Give the backbone structure.
Amino acid sequence: MMNPARSATLARHRIHWLEPVFWVSTLLVYFVYPEYLAVATGVLVMVLFALACDLAIGFAGILTLGQALYFGVGAYAAGLIAKFAWNEAITGAIAAGALAAAIAAVLGPFVLRLAGLPLIMVTLGINVIVFEAANKATWLTGGDDGLTGFSMAPLLGLFRWSLYGHTKFLYVLGWLFVVFYVLRRIVASPFGVALQGIRENRQRMRLLGAPVLRQLVTAYVLSAAVAAIAGAVSAQTSAFVSLGVLSMDVTLDGLVIIVLGGLGTLVGSLLGAPLYLLVKHFTGQWNPDYWYLAIGLLLVLTVRFGRGGVLGLFARYLPARYLPRARADKPRKEVRA
């Protein structure tokens, strides 16, 4: 008989009605609101990046502020590959993801021996060092002026990258669908359950004989690869890479998205990114000086009234079986001997 706790953990990652709603909604945007395809493409890119953050932070419990490092590495790698090597988009994104994964595989065994505040500060410090290095290496990255002078070949040799953004939107949507499917399979596997056990109690998992560091490094590498793919498709669809891809703003955007949507659910990224970025976009159009206030109020209301983000708010009105559970959906009960 399956362990009830394990079956409950795996049940979180069954297909829920929120997922088809998201995919159908994105297709409706493509057909009904073509004038917003540029904004929608940016939203899909951030959903990809938020999935990377959720895998590392929400599932593995790796408290990092350095995920922008891999987003930026992916963006610069894709741009440089298109400029100096080849300009085929899919293989360029795969190469960028592989490069970021290799960097994470080198850094992971060292930085993941830390936890809590030391890990946060070390990952933040590495990100700042790389940001400054990219700023100084103007011969390679363009510095403050950004990386330009590259363009992508027609997708699959058939579909040109037009100004209307149809090919760009479908290209990013295709990557998002593939990555989301792969991550769903990973977090619902025994490896994913082990990651959540490490997140809850690292010492206990170590005493049970689990290879804690190796599994954390694996999750870190996977997260870095996904973040780099997000950065790569961002560079490919905009034909420009600014220094901002390595800034803390990117990491903070990812953190806000997964907190709003629901930490440790994957589905929360599908909900949190459109909510956050659309509020940011339209509030900025209304008054550029006060969009921070709108986002702050949104965060306060979500955290105050919905444990587990937007999914927690929905859980107040829908039966629990219709929703994937976020990490903070219910307070733990204290067990006394």
